[in-house]
Specification:
The protein is of the alpha/beta class. The chain has 11 helices and 12 strands. The protein has 2 domains: about 200 residues, Rossmann fold (3-Layer(aba) Sandwich); about 130 residues, Rossmann fold, CATH 3.40.50. A 7-stranded mixed beta sheet has the order 2-1-3-4-6-5-10, sandwiched between helices. The chain is globular, with a radius of gyration of 20 Å.
């Protein structure tokens, strides 16, 4: 099974060979590194930029306005904040031009904690991204979804922010990407650049990959249940699944929703689940003040107030300036398995 870095790489290969992607670029995106997480190794249209986030976003906007499709990478989301005005401008363009100037660009950036990256390599960006009207925002939790969401993002006429969780880039999936070999060693030999002297002449041998698209705005139920609903995405989705599995052994069935898209999001899926369970907890690792989960909890309160049996809850990262390097500091700052389990038990125990 492919890991998420390999899944993204294969999707980008399909993008440049079959979907009209003309440029894949960013810091260290081209040879010899192929991206800090190796997600762009072996791609024909990948090239390196200077260490200039504003230049990367500005170039992507220019290519999009010229009618080309590109995928631009900001090496870590921690360094995307100095491009906010450009991101805002990109989101406005299609609307301001009354549909005359679509901007079919993808901006990919690794997000979140979990790699002990300390203060400059642990930021989340989902809450900030949700405040950029005109952008679509996706965050995969599995390699298969990483593949399918990238193919959908490439083909979308709108600008798409593709937030890939840093801590999941080396995690293998449980489902085959259509066309990949079942043997992970065979896949590695085909598309992973060797680390020895062979890398100077190495070229990838791409599998016969199939088109597989995950619709932007469509969530996925990863665990069925009727006692409470957990809504998450990215790395935190796996913690929610584990909590549901733990409680299932106690005879408590928790429904887990992987949003996959932060905007547009699958409100109908959330609504139907909350109407069934009567209780909901939103989990992510961005900071808890003005968190995207707060918006979802607010909407549940506004539209489903008389149908819930407990107050909607949000579990998110602490509102601190950054995440420390020591594992204890990181673990105390962003939700851990025991935090999700505790919040879920309290949600179940709350009496209407």
């Amino acid at each position: 099974m492919a890991n998420m870095a390999q899944a993204i790489r294969m999707a980008l290969h399909v993008g440049e060979t079959r979907l009209g992607v003309t440029d894949i670029f960013g810091q260290d995106v081209g040879a010899p590194l192929g991206g800090v997480f190796t997600a762009t190794q072996g791609l024909k249209t990948a090239w390196n930029t200077p260490l200039d986030e504003r230049g990367i976003i500005g170039t992507a906007i220019g290519l999009g306005l010229a009618g080309q499709r590109c995928v631009a990478e900001i090496q870590f989301a921690d360094y995307i904040f100095n491009t906010m005005d450009l991101l805002k401008m990109a989101g406005n363009t299609y609307w301001c031009s009354n549909g005359q100037y679509p901007l079919p660009i993808v901006v990919m950036t690794p997000v979140g904690a979990g790699i002990r990256g300390s203060i400059y390599h642990s930021h989340s960006f989902d809450a900030w991204a949700s405040r950029l009207p005109g952008w679509k925002i996706v965050m995969p939790a599995t390699p298969l979804d990483a593949y399918g969401l990238m193919l959908s993002a490439i083909q979308d006429p709108n600008p798409v922010l593709y937030l890939n969780p840093k801590a999941l880039m080396r995690v293998r999936g449980e489902e085959l990407i259509p066309g990949e070999p079942a043997d992970e060693k065979e896949l590695k030999a085909m598309i992973d650049q060797p680390v020895d002297e062979r890398k100077a002449t190495w070229k990838p041998r791409w599998p016969e990959l199939e088109l597989y698209e995950v619709p932007i705005g469509k969530g996925k139920i990863t665990r069925e249940g009727d006692r409470a609903t957990l809504v998450s995405y990215g790395r935190m989705l796996h913690l929610c699944n584990k909590v549901a599995d733990i409680l299932r052994e106690e005879g408590i069935y928790i429904e887990v929703i992987d949003l996959r898209s932060i905007y547009p999001y699958d409100w109908q899926m959330i609504k139907a689940s909350v109407q069934k369970t009567g209780r909901v907890l939103f989990v992510n690792e961005d900071t808890e003040v003005t968190n995207f989960g707060e918006h979802l909890a607010y909407r549940v309160t506004q539209e489903l107030f008389y149908e819930v049996m407990a107050r909607p809850r949000v579990l998110a990262g602490k509102h601190v300036p950054g995440i420390g390097l020591h594992p204890n500091l990181e673990d105390a700052t962003v939700p851990q398995l025991e935090d999700v389990l505790r919040e879920t038990r309290e949600l179940l125990a709350e009496v209407p």
